[in-house]
Write a structure and sequence with these properties.
The structure is a homodimer of 349-residue chains. By secondary structure, chain A is α/β, with parallel strands linked by helices. Chain A contains 11 helices and 9 strands. Chain A folds into 2 domains: 227 residues, Alpha/Beta hydrolase fold, catalytic domain (Rossmann fold); 94 residues, Rna Polymerase Sigma Factor, Chain: A (Orthogonal Bundle), CATH 1.10.1740.110. Chain A is 36% helix and 12% strand. In chain A, the strands form 2 sheets. Chain A has a 7-stranded mixed β-sheet, sandwiched between helices. A two-stranded parallel ribbon of chain A has the order 3-4.
């Protein structure tokens, strides 16, 4: 592991769609945000909709008739890859907080192990969304000979202090839940209260105030009908957050969340060589596209501009696309209308 | 109380500076944000600096040589006015969560009781900052015959869903702390963990991402020096939030916070007559100024524009001032350079 420690026989979970051509001429590697699994789209083996269902499939932007798409479950996650919720083969117990410090370079290396195992020597495109964009950057810097193109979506070379503050507070919410118990929580009774708070704060930064204003306004407030609970539930926005938080908190392991959240904060692309200039200098890419969203508060547009400028210094064919989406950081997950044409144009041209 | 229930012999704490002329010709009423006390500035009786120290005093924007300034501690607060942390004279016990539902109209009425007690029949200017701007609006609509002018700073006719979400989550952090105990916490051992989380979330919305980027960048992170704590403390922004949260959480009663926070969410100026048009129609003001800040996410500039438009429909002499401050919602507390000239011009012309 990059910051010390090691893992014995780690596993990296991944899913693929389409058929590999040659040694990777048509391979697309997809690195995810903090929370998704490798199940980016449904398939004959698993017909549950994936997290990028509208983007992956026949005649979709990531066209499975043309491309071989590989989605990587991050090292440190809890959806098949080795992480804090996995058993340490040396002790027979769960790693929990004895898991070594996780960095996104370790996550990128996990992706590279998949690439090797599949026998690829080149890549058509590396894609990363949000945290996955940071992982993709380090993947390309660590393995420049794979070549190909880079598509970075709503990501950055490092987190701004505001985003670090958000994630630090989310972690504090979880470890402040007495049920966290220093990471040794009962798996049947995890720190769900802290996780729910953290998820709600997440939702508040993944979307945008403008979207909520259009969507909710002051809906459901009435002078006559007050909520049963004394301090909650007068407004639609509150039940919206409750519903979203419940969906998530049952699924994600609290310790895995802590590790991946901190890895996002620790990432600094300039560590690849000591400066951003030298980090960008390591890339050997044919083409790059940076996509950002006007209403993103977590990875704001100014970071997309900085990233595109850095890439353009070493890759002639670099393009920055600013999307005027209202749904904030999460737009790439939900605003297919704006994202699909841009991704199609980059991948299929 | 506006939504039912009543208080026996409530107390409203206030402070004054300067000398009253006539029946209120030079009186300035100041309504505060959610957390401040009535101690807006130092005085011979209390030389501790107040929360608006740079604005109130001889030859300052609120010039105590010319004006008689009255700052009101909100009903429901814990700095002298009756609130959930006060003793209910009927039972001899603290009100705690048996305190009736609080609205900003109740807070405004508390201010009016002070005006009456001081024998005022008119007012030179009513000022409200943040939540206090909402209180000031309802004060002016409920007591139009006091006349005078209105200065609204970083406020609105109602909260946007994002701000409701922030405050709802802050309340949830407090009631999720096991030490809250349904509001019956030990006063020597209050739900400080939840209060600290709530305050940190507050700080994240009171300031602006842009300010933090200028101020902190990635300061204090080093690949070699890791924090003692496993998931925290690698970044300056984290210790900044810790320090600010500690300063606040020791002072403010948790139940009072819950009541005032919810009152901010419940406020809807259109309830004064059934629509915003009729609410604005109740005002009998000579002049109004609305001041907003570009980087305010809690009471964004579009709300300042809406408020100014509503006021302009009934008050010919209405002005909107957009300040390009970087310090977000809290700019009025910390950015004297930008605010002092604007307030001086409005008050002293």
């Amino acid at each position: 592991m990059r910051r010390g420690g090691f893992l014995e026989s780690p596993v990296i979970a991944y899913e693929t769609w389409g058929t590999l051509v040659g040694e990777g001429e048509n391979a697309i590697i997809l690195f995810t945000g903090l929370s998704p699994s490798a199940h980016a789209a449904s398939s004959p083996d698993n017909n549950a909709p994936g997290w990028w269902e509208s983007m992956i499939g026949p005649r979709l932007p990531l066209d499975t008739d043309q491309f071989f798409i590989i989605c990587i479950n991050s090292l440190g996650s809890c959806f098949g890859s080795t992480g804090p919720a996995s058993i340490n083969p040396r002790t027979g117990d769960l790693y929990r907080v004895s898991f070594p410090v996780l960095t996104l370079e370790d996550v990128a290396q996990g992706g590279f192990e998949v690439v090797k195992a599949l026998g690829l020597t080149k890549v058509h495109t590396t894609i990363g969304c949000s945290m996955g964009g940071m992982t993709a950057l380090s993947f390309c810097a660590m393995h420049p000979d794979l070549g190909g193109q880079l598509l970075s979506i709503s990501s950055a070379t490092s987190a701004i202090p505001f985003s670090i503050a958000v994630r630090s507070l989310q972690r504090e919410m979880i470890v402040s839940d007495p049920k966290w118990e220093g990471g040794n929580y009962d798996l049947e009774d995890p720190p769900i209260v802290g996780q729910r708070l953290a998820r709600k704060l997440g939702m508040m930064t993944y979307r945008s105030p403008e979207e909520w204003e259009q969507r909710f306004g002051r809906a459901s407030i009435s002078t006559d009908v007050m909520s049963d609970e004394q301090f909650f539930g007068d407004f639609s926005i509150e039940s919206y957050l409750v519903n979203h938080a419940e969906k998530f908190t049952g699924q994600f392991d609290a310790n895995c969340y802590l590790y991946l959240s901190r890895a996002s904060d620790l990432f600094d692309f300039s560590e690849h060589g000591g400066s951003l200039v030298s980090a960008f200098g390591k890339l050997k890419l044919e083409r790059a596209m940076v996509v950002g969203v006007e209403t993103d508060v977590l990875f704001p547009l100014r970071q997309q501009q900085d990233l595109a400028r850095g890439l353009a210094a070493v890759i002639d064919d670099t393009e920055l696309v600013r999307l005027d989406c209202i749904k904030g950081h999460d737009s790439f997950l939900v605003d297919t209308e704006n994202f699909a044409p841009v991704i199609t144009r980059f991948i299929q041209s």
